[in-house]
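In this supplementary section we document a worked example of the pipeline. Step one takes a protein sequence of length 158 as its only input; no multiple sequence alignment statistics are reported here. Step two produces a three-dimensional model, which step three serialises into structure tokens for compact storage. The input and output of this example are shown verbatim.
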Amino acid sequence: MKILFSSLFASLLLISCQTRKKDVLQGSISDDEIEIAKNLIQGSFDDLWAGVDSTKIKNYHTDDFIILEQGEIWDNERIKEYMRGQLSRANRPVRTNRMEYISIEKYGASIQIAYWNYADFKLNDSLVGKASWLESALAVKTENGWRLKMMHSTGVRK
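The serialised model returned by step three reads:
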């Protein structure tokens, strides 16, 4: 009986430790946090990449944000430079983004997001281009709420 109790106790302890370890490494994510993550991604693309509004960078990015974009490292200043170039174009197409989420997982005070990004480019209501990317992002909780700290983007040729 003593051996049975000891075995049962050891098994419960092992299961408890494994569950606790999993919770620490891959914590559960609430529906609200999933929506926050999706809104960060969609909002940043709508306001920054489509809207070309550099005044909204602080609403989505940490101060030390970087994006690994097609083999280049872009920070917030590089993004502003890109936006200035876009705004100087006379016939800039209107960009519309659509995301398909692959996974959204929470790890402590961060959220990892993987998704497909599809963009249509229209000029005078005519479709002039399409593009797609496989992307990932890391969002962190800051004193100002959730912000994107890092992204990775790889263009996909169709």
